[in-house]
Each structure stands twice: as structure tokens, then as C-alpha cells.
Amino acid sequence: MALAAEETGILQEAYPTKARDGLSNYANSSTHERKATVFAKELIKTAIAEKLDKEILLSSKTFCIADLGCSVGPNTVLAVQNIFEAVESKCQYYLHELNSQIPDFQVFFNDYTSNDFNLLFTSLPNDRRYYAAGVPGSFYGPLFPENSLHFVHSSYAIQWLSGVPKEVMNKNSPAWNKGKIHYSKSGDEVVLAYKAQCDKDMEQFLQARAKEIVCGGLMVLIFPGVPNGTHHSQSLPNMILELLGSCLMDLARKGIISEEKVDYFNMPTYLMSPKELEAAVERNGCFTIEGMEGLPLPLPSDSSAVASHLRAAVEGMIKLHFGEKILDELFDCYRKKIDENFSILKSGNLVNFFFLLKRRAAN
Amino acid sequence: MALAAEETGILQEAYPTKARDGLSNYANSSTHERKATVFAKELIKTAIAEKLDKEILLSSKTFCIADLGCSVGPNTVLAVQNIFEAVESKCQYYLHELNSQIPDFQVFFNDYTSNDFNLLFTSLPNDRRYYAAGVPGSFYGPLFPENSLHFVHSSYAIQWLSGVPKEVMNKNSPAWNKGKIHYSKSGDEVVLAYKAQCDKDMEQFLQARAKEIVCGGLMVLIFPGVPNGTHHSQSLPNMILELLGSCLMDLARKGIISEEKVDYFNMPTYLMSPKELEAAVERNGCFTIEGMEGLPLPLPSDSSAVASHLRAAVEGMIKLHFGEKILDELFDCYRKKIDENFSILKSGNLVNFFFLLKRRAAN
């Protein structure tokens, strides 16, 4: 058995788990936009109703659910509650065949060790009808015993790479990402380095899950992505990161931070297209794709909301690399740039993808 | 399925999980005294070697260990490592019958939600060869799915009651514990109320574990107790709490706190005798007792060490009930009393009990 080598050092620390919501999940910022979340929930319910094999319910005394990259907050608890209720209601339907024995439910909340599990545990409802456990560690490695999971859920998490690709921070590499903090407007070498990192991460992710999920078990992946054929630079989250990068370069030009410091700061996120995930699933070979949906999100109507969301998302990482002092000036510049570029930003692409995978019986 | 109603409110908050070590586990305070811990470890190894049925290893693809009331700190990790290694070495012995397949190991660290799971997760060794999970909640209720555990360990935890017995804080009850904070020098009614609370807690504890532990599974309980036939007031941990109570009453006499405030403060601990645990196991009926040892501890040689240990143990609870202001004066008084009474304290009884239970096959 090979076990999860915990991600350590600066990169792990650099992922404030709160960031996830801020960076890509506009969906909860207003009643209007919450519709996207509601839609994802409905897709999960339908997936369980239509694609979860009866045999799995009949053969498991305990039905195990894992939420990978769970973060903390009401969304974490609601997502799990939604899955639990859908499976339970399916059990009710087969109550006769189950000899009136609904299985026990055990939910594993996973995230990096630096996630606030204390807060997460406090926020679990007291009247929950499932057994809860927290599992620390990177989902790019093994986290659970073999054949122990029946349903895996991961939302707004797999766009975070396991780390920044090494080449983009190597002066002597053609993929050196000088003067930029992300790949979407960089040269092909940089984009390829990011893509290679994502491919490797997805390979490890799917390999680990293939071992952990029982045959017939389901996995739902929700992530912000780029539609097939759309250039990375047309994606709104990427556009916004580019603006942040240009603000950092402005500070460097003013001598407030060194340009070299910017060269060595890169965001460890990559937005996949559906085709890229499909290819990863095919290479892995242990899952079938049972469903895919694009969930286009309404573009934000308010520039200051975008700015403050994004500040919440990236502030922790910036502080860690550049120190606290620059924060106010940086985000001042940032807010202005977002405001100035708002009409361009509104042309950006903002879409989440929903994938439903099923663990194959063979292999 | 009935699920753990989380203990809430002041009592739960009042259990600083660190307290456990301080209150009863002198065993780690010096090399000399660490021998007691080493002895307990050896008992666990022997228990696994001699009493863990081969069939359990052969029938489980994942071997599940739970540490109940795990707290945080090096002892938590070491205790689990000891169990893991002993079971793994037994698997090596039966490697041929296991078709060279050592099972996966999953370790569940349980404690109250208020335990610092963040710190616990950080302290887990990166090269651990087991899957780790944290499980928040009171072990006086269900925590795990049915038939899901193979080995349960609980050390220095079950002497903490689920709460203070209500009668001792009821002015109109004959068990009202006026002017005292513990039962060991109180009237029979108070002692009986504490004992009844302990009986009820142990009933719930054993009932929950009987469901969770597979037939043939083992449970090791280590707790500070009183030898059969020894009066509660002769136990060193109890004597020390009595001194704390008398210091609080001194403060009340000086008008620094109200006497009523002392009346409503009681320590939720009860030290069982082996006979009491045996009776609880017999009433429950689902376990056999496979082994019992008394682990007498060397009496502390240094009064100031006792005082500082105990301050660490109870400070949180005192602060919560009486406020921060009284702490220095209280523990000043406390240190003096421990010093004055040290020769009497040295006559006190300090012993941990080790029980090995096995889940019966029937019922």
C-alpha cells in the first residue's frame, strides 16, 4: 500500500481553502446567481436516481460518501446533505429488497491539513443522520482504503493544481514565466507546462480514486473550466488573474516590490476544457463518463463585487509571498483595473462543468 | 439508526482535552515515570498477539482502529502507531494465509468537537502507513457505522463523565454538593449520584461500542481508578481535587467569589474500581473481559510538578466558570496547600487500570 505523501511546504500553505469559493464560485454571491448551485444539486439528484446501481445499495451495510477538497462553510454541509438525501430516498424506494434495512451512512470530509477542520466540525448539523469524519491530505494521492467509497463529490477543487509547474519558475527553462503570474496570456511553453502539470495531477487523482471507489460507484466533479475551442485568455477567472499580475508588475515598476519576486510567483490553477477531462478519463481507463453538463454562470454585474471576491480569494497567497505591506496598494490598483476593464471582462467566459463518472466493473 | 447527539454547551466546552494528561497521566512527566506508559504499550502488544483472532485479519480488507478521546499530542500518535505495528506484525505472521495481502489500515481519531483536530492532523507523521480520519463527537453515543471497527483504544478518557450529575447541583436534592466540587469526601448521596452518572455513561459507552465493533474485535480501556475496596478519598487524583475545592472555598470566605458559585461548580470525573467496570461489562453482556491489570504509578516526588500539572488540567474549566481574575490567587493557594499536604498526598493511591475486552460472537 502506498500512502498519501502529504503536500508540504509553501504550496500547501498557499492554498487558503476559502479561496476556492472566492476565485471561481460566484454562484453564491446573490440569490440570482445561486440558481447555478441549485442546478448542480438537481444534476446530482438525477445522477443518483438514474445512475447509482441498486446492487450497490443492496450490497453495502455502510454507504460511504467522500467530499474531496471540501473547504468549510455552509456549501460544504449542504452539498453532502443533498447527496445523502438522494441516496437515502433511493434506499427507501428499494426498502423491500433491503429487508427494510437502510444502510448506515458515513461521510468523509477531505481537504488539505491546513483546512480549518475545527470550524468544519463545529458547523456540522447536530441532527445529521450520517457518521462524519474529517480526512486530511491532498486528493492527488491516496486518501482512503481500497474499495471503500460509494460516492465521491468534488466541487471547485480540481482546478487547483498540486503545485506550480517547476519549469515556469526556472530562469533557464523556455517555459520561464517572466513577469507573469499565470499562463493564460503567456507563450506556448508556459501553457504546456501548466497543462502537463494538470495532466499529471489528473492522472494521480483518477488513479487514486479508481482504487478507492467500488465498482459501480459514482464520482461527481464540478469545476470552473473553459469551453472546448475557447482560448484560455477568454476565460473570466483567467482574465481576472492577468489583471492581478499586471498590478503586481506595476508595483515592481514603482520599485515597491522586486520584479524577480513577481517572476517567482505563479498561481497554481488550471482551467480544463471538457475535452481535456475526457482525455484524462480515457487515459486512466477505470471510469466511464455517464454525464456532462456545462453550467454557464451569469456574468457579475458589479465590478466591486468581483474585486472583493477576488481579494478574499488570493489575499492569503499574496501575503505569504510578498508580505502584508503591499496588500492595500495592490488591491487598490486591482479594483481600479477591474473597473476600467469591466466591459472587456463582461465578454469573458464563465462556466462550470459538471461531470458524472462511474467506476467500471472490470480492471 | 440513532445518531450521536453531540454534547453541547458548557460541559463540553469545559473539557479542555489537554486536561486529561494533566489530571491523571503523570506517566509522561519524567523518564522514570514513563515506564508506566511503556508497560501499557507492552500489554497492548501482548493483547494483539494473543487475543486478536486470526479470522478477523483474514476477513477484513481494511482493518479499522479507533482511538476514543484521543486528545492531541505525541502520545496520541504513539499509541496508535503501537497498535498499528502490532497488528501489522501479526499480519506478517499470517502472510501466507492472507495470500500475501496485508489489509489496509484506517485509523479514526475521536474526541469532542472542541478538540484541536487541526493540530492533531498537523502532528500526524507524513510517512504513516495508515489512512487517518478525525471523528468529532462524544463517545457516550454512537460514532461509527455498525460492525465497522476491529480494534478500539481509549486511554485516560472514560474517567470523564458525559457531564456533572444534575442532582449534585440541585439545591433541593439530598445529593446537593454544597461547598464542594467533587464527590470523594461528600455524603453518600453525592457519591451515589456520581456513581449513577458513571453507570449510565458506561452503559451508553458499551452499548454504542457493542454495535460498532465486529464480533471478535478488541477494546482496550486504560483509565485512572481506585483499587477494589479503597475509599474514593484515598485516591490521589481525588485528594488533589479536594484541595482545589477547599481553595475555592477559601476564596469564597474572603469574598473574592460567591459561595454559590462554588456550589454550582463540580468536576465531571469519576474514578471507577475494577469491580465497577466489570459490573458494567456484565450488565451490557456483549463483551468478555480477556485481561485486566493494575498499573500502579510511582507517586510524584515533587509538589510543584503536581501543582503545575494540575493547573494545566483544570485551568480552562475554572476560567470558564469563575472568570480569569481569580486564577493567580487560586493557584497560589493551591500550590501552598499541595506543599503543606504533600506527605498526606504521598500516601494517596495512584493507579491506572488496563482492561482488555472482546466483542462476543453472539447477540
UniProtKB/TrEMBL annotation, chains A, B:
Keywords: Magnesium, Metal-binding, Methyltransferase, Transferase. The lineage of its organism: Eukaryota, Viridiplantae, Streptophyta, Embryophyta, Tracheophyta. This is Loganic acid O-methyltransferase-like. Gene3D superfamilies: Methyltransferase, alpha-helical capping domain (1.10.1200.270), Vaccinia Virus protein VP39 (3.40.50.150). PANTHER family: S-ADENOSYL-L-METHIONINE:CARBOXYL METHYLTRANSFERASE FAMILY PROTEIN (PTHR31009). The gene is LOC125422619. It comes from the Eukaryota. InterPro entries: MeTrfase_7 (IPR005299), MeTrfase_capping (IPR042086), SAM-dependent_MTases_sf (IPR029063). The keyword Transferase applies.
